[in-house]
Each structure stands twice: as structure tokens, then as C-alpha cells.
Design goal:
This protein has 342 residues and is α+β, with helices and mostly antiparallel strands. It has helices spanning 3-26, 55-70, 78-85, 95-108, 118-123, 137-144, 170-187, 283-296, 298-308; strands spanning 29-37, 41-49, 87-89, 153-154, 158-160, 193-197, 200-204, 213-218, 229-235, 238-244, 249-252, 255-258, 273-280, 311-318, 321-326, 334-336, 340-341.
């Protein structure tokens, strides 16, 4: 082979290599983006598609904007300024939808889900101030006077609070943030994805093995430094959020005080429900109901599931040990590892 042919052959190989590299890059495959938001919470985004250039930066910026709207830990966020002056004209796209969703769940759960509960949560030692409190009935009754989402006034442009009210969307924020990121992916034409933020998840389509996304549900009876799955669920076009009383609590004078506070009584919710995993089309809804169910307990939660056409897995303690309730709609997609099922 003469020198001229060698050069032509070499150019041909280079062009072929470039074409194959381009096609591989453009071919649908699994991508994984990870980051940190809301302080120390890790997020994971997986999608099966052609690579979207700069998507990681877009996700990061969307979550920065989200926190600037709804984080009570940012002094100049929208919600911080609302809590300070009692009135806000919305500046972001995030505020009105979370108010609207919160009102719906507040009404449908008889006030068990209430974003105005912040003063009580703080007073019981589960807010930024972690000191164990010394509350009496008079103090609890006084705090109940500045709680009640039905007293919050809002429309599509503004929100106003009664005197001394505070809003805190921490019980719904992770689920809402999951939806915000998922909607960004869909805007970019991505149809197969899994978005997870701090354990709350939304899935669409299938994974890179052409199967529904597989997610684990933790066993609420193990120690916080251990990890054991009670169930595995395969999700397609659904969201999942879990709430539980089993990790965030303290003991005082022989009593256990859990972080799930009942807005209606002012005290820790007392029942045998250990965790509630709720399935819904969007993660904000699933997150809000998971919190409400941990206030309501097993029986009332099952009634609301049926009324609202939701699915859930409830892990609870009975005289027979640890048991589970699994609603009909999710059973075909679930593999329970232990716990007696109903």
C-alpha cells in the first residue's frame, strides 16, 4: 500500500471513529446526575435518553430557585419574608401551587396536614432549636391559637397570614421539589426517568433494562445506623413518599415524644402506625398525605385512601407483632420481604 493510500485509509478510519462516537453519544442510554439541595439532602436523577447537554446545571439552578422561594432557612426567601411581614405577592412560580395543594390536603384530612404547624413543632423541640422543651397544657393551647391553615388567605397572586402565623412547607417540600425536577426533564423531552430527593421519588417510563424502576421501602423497626428493606416496589408513572415516626424522637420523663405533631391537639400523634408509604401520580400529593396519615393513624388513613383513590403501604405494630396493610392497587407491583400482610 503506497503512502497516498495509507493517508486515505487513515482519514477513513478517523471519520468512521468520529461517526461511531457521535452515534454512541446520541444513542439513548442511562444517565445519572447527583447533587445536594436543601442543606444536606442528596438528590439522584436517572434518565434513559440521548444526553441532554447541561442538564445537571439546569437541575441545580432549578433547585436553588426552589429553595429561594420556599426554604425557611434562607433569611430572604419568599417564605421567610412572608413569615416576617405576613403578606407576600408571589415572585416565583413555586409559591401558589404549594398553597393550593396544601389547602386541598388540609381539607381532605380534616386538618391533619397543616403547614402552619411550625410554632408547635418548634416548641416541641423538632425545629431548628433542638432543646428538649418543658411545655404545659396552657402553652400548648396558646400555640394552637396561631395555627390553622384555614385561616390563611391566598389567591393566584398574593398570600396573607393572620398575626403571629408562620408557614413551613417542610412536610411537602421534598415531594414538590421532586415534581419540579421531573417536570424539567419532561420539558426536555425525557420520557423515562427516576427523580429521588431525600427518599421521595417520582418515576416515569422504564429503566435502562426496559423494566419499571425498582425502589426499596425501609423497614421501620431497624436502628437508624442500619438499613433493611421491608419491600421492593416496581414503579411506572407513579410517585412514592414515605413518612414515619421511628427515627426522629426523644424520651423525657419516661415518655416518648415523636416529631409527628397532631395540629388538632397540639401533641405528638399517638397510634400504632410506624410508617406510611403513599403512591400518587405526583410526589407533592404523596408527600403531603404520607405526613397526614402519620397523624391520623391506620384506620382513618385507610378510609381516606379509599375516598381519594390513592394507594399506600402502612407498617404498623399490633399485638401479633409488626404487620402491614397494602392497598389493592399497588399489590401487583410489590414484593414484601417480611411483616405479615393484610
Amino acid at each position: 500500500m503506497n503512502k497516498k493510500r495509507l493517508i486515505i485509509f487513515g482519514i477513513g478510519l478517523a471519520v468512521t471513529f468520529l461517526i461511531i462516537s457521535y452515534l454512541r453519544k446520541d444513542a439513548p442510554r442511562l444517565h445519572h446526575i447527583q447533587g445536594q439541595t436543601m442543606g444536606t439532602i442528596i438528590y439522584n436523577v436517572k434518565y434513559v435518553a440521548s444526553e441532554v447537554e447541561g442538564l445537571d446545571a439546569m437541575i441545580s439552578q432549578e433547585l436553588v430557585d426552589f429553595n429561594q422561594s420556599l426554604s425557611t432557612y434562607i433569611p430572604d426567601s419568599e417564605i421567610s419574608r412572608l413569615n416576617k411581614i405576613g403578606l407576600l405577592a408571589y415572585e416565583s412560580k413555586f409559591f401558589y401551587p404549594v398553597l393550593k395543594a396544601s389547602k386541598k390536603v388540609f381539607e381532605q384530612t380534616g386538618g391533619a396536614f397543616d403547614p402552619s404547624i411550625g410554632p408547635l413543632v418548634q416548641a416541641w423541640g423538632f425545629g431548628s432549636d433542638k432543646n428538649i422543651p418543658n411545655l404545659d397544657a396552657a402553652k400548648v393551647d396558646s400555640l394552637k391559637g396561631v395555627i390553622g391553615f384555614d385561616r390563611v388567605s391566598f389567591d393566584e397572586e398574593n398570600v396573607s397570614l393572620p398575626s403571629n402565623f408562620q408557614l413551613d412547607f417542610s412536610a411537602i417540600a421534598k415531594g414538590y421539589a421532586v415534581d419540579v425536577v421531573a417536570e424539567l426533564l419532561e420539558e426536555k423531552g425525557i420520557e423515562n426517568y427516576m427523580v429521588e430527593i431525600g427518599g421521595e421519588v417520582r418515576c416515569r417510563g422504564k429503566n435502562d433494562l426496559d423494566k419499571p424502576w425498582a425502589l426499596g421501602i425501609e423497614d421501620p423497626t431497624v436502628q437508624s445506623n442500619e438499613q433493611k428493606l421491608m419491600a421492593i416496589v416496581r414503579l411506572k408513572d407513579l410517585s412514592l413518599a414515605t413518612s414515619g415516626n421511628y427515627r426522629n424522637y426523644y424520651e423525657k420523663d419516661g415518655q416518648i415524644f415523636a416529631h409527628i405533631i397532631d395540629p388538632r391537639t397540639g401533641y405528638s400523634a399517638k397510634h400504632n402506625l410506624l410508617s406510611a408509604s403513599v403512591f400518587a401520580p405526583d410526589c407533592m400529593t404523596a408527600d403531603a398525605y404520607a405526613t397526614a396519615f402519620m397523624v391520623l393513624g391506620l384506620e382513618y388513613s385507610i378510609e381516606i385512601l379509599k375516598a381519594q383513590n390513592l394507594d399506600a403501604i402502612f407498617i404498623y405494630r399490633s399485638e401479633n407483632g409488626i404487620e402491614s396493610f397494602v392497598s389493592e392497587g399497588i399489590r401487583p407491583f410489590l414484593e414484601m420481604n417480611n411483616a405479615k400482610g393484610n
